[in-house]
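Slide 14.
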Amino acid sequence: MTRRRTRGAGGLGALVAGALAAPPADVRALQTATSLEVAAVAAYGALRDLAVVRGNPALVRFVQTTMFQHDEHRQAFQSQTRALGGQPQTAPHPALASVVDQATPTLTTPLDVVTLAETLETVAAHTYLADLAQLEDGASRRLVASVMGVECRHAATLRVFKALLQGAPDLVRFPLGADAARLPPGSLVAGVPEPTEPTTGAVAPDSAALPQ
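Slide 15: predicted structure.
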């Protein structure tokens, strides 16, 4: 009798230990968020080396600055994953990496580059907005919210770039100075087409989580 109870208790203990070792939902979401940042850093690194980017000082500045910020986000998400007892993600999100790999050889104009970059930023912003409704840990919510704000600014800037490239490509530069008066109608509004970002482009919060 005693041995059977011991074995039963041991089996239950193993199940409990396994459950405790499984990454919680917040960890899985942070791992997926990290994968988006890893993919973004790699993508901007590839864009930085393209001749079509090197020939446009405004794009060079945007790509370099944004890549640095995404790497900061990667490190922050990895640190928070560790704080929750999880294993940090180091690989890019497979779906986003696939989009970048397929698109990169076809990038021949600044508009092509900006369109791809907007996709990266939109997916991240939508995903983090969706995550905020699901995250339970307060520190994780604050981190994701702060990063989401940066991604929204990135996306807004790229949308303005797109509007300018289609109507006044010479105005894609820093600073605009007196030429701000030449901005095409609606070009600035293009940066924020809706009162709030939707979540239609979000990836599933556990779509790049590490195996349990």
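Speaker note: DSSP finds seven helices and no strands in the chain.
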